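Notes from the 1:1 (GR / supervisor)

We went over the backlog. Supervisor wanted to see one worked example end to end before approving the batch request, so GR pasted a single chain during the call. The sequence is below; no edits were made to it. Supervisor asked that the structure be written out right there so they could see what the output format looks like.
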Amino acid sequence: MRTLTATMFISLDGVVQGLGRPDEDTRDGFTYGGWGPRYNDEVMGHELGKSTAKPGDMLFRRRTWQDFATVWGSATDGNPFTTHMNAATKFVVSRTLQDADAWQNSILLRGDAVDTVAELKAQPGNDLSINGSASLVRTLHAAGLIDHYTLLIHPLTLGAGARLFEGASRFTEFELTGSVTTGKGVIIAHYTRR
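Structure output shown during the call:
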């Protein structure tokens, strides 16, 4: 059985919206987009690089997949993250996407997210990771399908924006399996569901 790890960049007040660019996700009038890059440093790059060192498949919801396909799909910068993402098999959970041809090695998973991901996890293959796709993470968390979390907790509050655990969330306990603090104050915490 495959394991599923969610990697989420998060503010102290739980916001996961619009990390990378001002125009990344302005839904509901969110104006703080691009809050994350100023906290990047070598320690963060090293820690995130560990996940690209081993084979793995990626899991997305439609919106994040489309954004990543635009940003990373045509990149040829030699960045190890670019190389990893373009080479990885990318599963896209969507009820509305017509095809997944816009980004190489992408496979469309139609239907209910919980059912399709549970079926995918039960199949033999590489472990799965979610980067972003907060709504998918919330859905799969509620169904008990996420095995591990890597949270990059940034030292700021935003006061507005979509939060990682909004709405109903099941009672779940985690074990802290490791943590690193970057030079810019980001705590990278690794949790495993008990």
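Supervisor's comment: Helices lie at 42-52, 62-72, 80-87, 113-122, 134-142.
Batch request approved.
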